[in-house]
Amino acid sequence: MQGCWPTRTGDRGRALRLLSMREHSRLELERKLSSHETREGELAEALDALTARGFISDERVADSLLHRRAAKLGASRVKAELQAKGLDDAVVREAVESLRATELERAREVWRRKFGQPPADAAERARQMRFLAARGFSGETIRKAIEGADED
């Protein structure tokens, strides 16, 4: 078992502490721990060992982010956050596809919590649309969500 881990435990310990708080991607851990690296390649060895043992997983990072953020954000914003974490393109694509089916319902719920009533005029309508756009909902979804609000 000794050969499985790097001999110095500093980087591994720091990485495990970060992972105990929430899921982190390899890129996030590299960013956070690079200043602690004392020997070239030491951090990469520690992260390779953690990945091999299943402590670092792109799928778990994506699931965690979806669980925390999907109710408040549209698919394009979630996609940008996943990509910023350096996740594999296939994992990002799969996560975003899973959000598309509920995009309209989530947009309506976000709108309902923020506004609760249909826009009174064009200026208010534009403000509500900008709000949803800033949260990453598509134009078509925003239009349908606000039209649905007018019908309620």
Q: What descriptive keywords fit this protein?
A:
elongated; Arc Repressor Mutant, subunit A; mainly alpha; 9 helices; 152 residues; 3 domains
Task: Give a verbal description of the structure.
This protein has 152 residues and is mainly alpha-helical. It has three domains: 56 residues, Orthogonal Bundle (Arc Repressor Mutant, subunit A); 44 residues; 49 residues, Arc Repressor Mutant, subunit A, CATH 1.10.10. It is built from nine helices and no strands.
What is the approximate shape? Answer: elongated
Q: Which series of helices and strands comes N to C?
A: HHHHHHHHH
Number of helices, where a helix is a run of at least 4 consecutive DSSP H or I residues: 9
Number of strands: 0
Please give the domain count.
Answer: 3
Tell me the strand percentage band: under 5%
Mean pLDDT equals: 88
Quick one: CATH class of the largest domain? Mainly Alpha
Distance between the termini: 63 Å
* Gross CATH architecture of the largest domain: Orthogonal Bundle
Q: How would a textbook summarize the main sheet?
A: none
Query: Low-confidence runs (pLDDT<50, min 5 residues)?
Result: 1-8
What structural category do the secondary elements indicate?
A: mainly alpha
Quaternary structure of the protein = single chain
Q: In CATH terms, what is the fold-level topology of the largest domain?
A: Arc Repressor Mutant, subunit A
Helix content class: 55-70%
Cα-based radius of gyration, to the nearest Å: 21 Å
